[in-house]
Task: structure prediction
Amino acid sequence: MVDVVLEVEIVVESKEVFKVLASASAIWIEALEHPISSLYLTSMRRGNGSITSIATTHRRSTIDHDGPGIARRLKGAGAFVLQCKRLEFHYCDWAGSSRGMNAFLQTKLPAFARENPGVEVSVSPRPGKHPVIRGHFINGREKAICVRNMTPHEILDKALYMRSNSGEKMNKGTKAGRNVVRSNNESVRGVWDPYHGTAFKV
Result:
């Protein structure tokens, strides 16, 4: 919750319908059927029997309360789209490397599916092969993680990682343990070129 002081020009037709133009911050606020008393008045100037200018403190919140009120922007909070659309869990009934996956499917997968209703979950057997988690993303890409010989808790961590992944291809600047410096300035040493400088003699 934050208090914002706005110097505004206000035109009042009635207490139920009014429009406020916030000239200082270039924000247009429209409110219908909202009482004027909900604004915190700090100063007011009258002219010819009507309010011509008013300084008000408007309390804004990112929570959109029920009922009519001042329109608020949530700044993308309601526009989030999960990038992972489907997770496939492959297992084998008799292979020892799928022991952890089989336990995960029985104990932890139901809760994982309930907590992530936006992700489609499918389970299918792969006889004679290692267990795999395969993710499908809205950009059309697929990623697979082999979870052979992992415990159910470790497999859950991999499933959460796959759910939170964007599906983009990992580049050199995002690899774990690799710090890549990107700058708009030219290198002090310059770019190395094998055809310049003194020749190396063996």
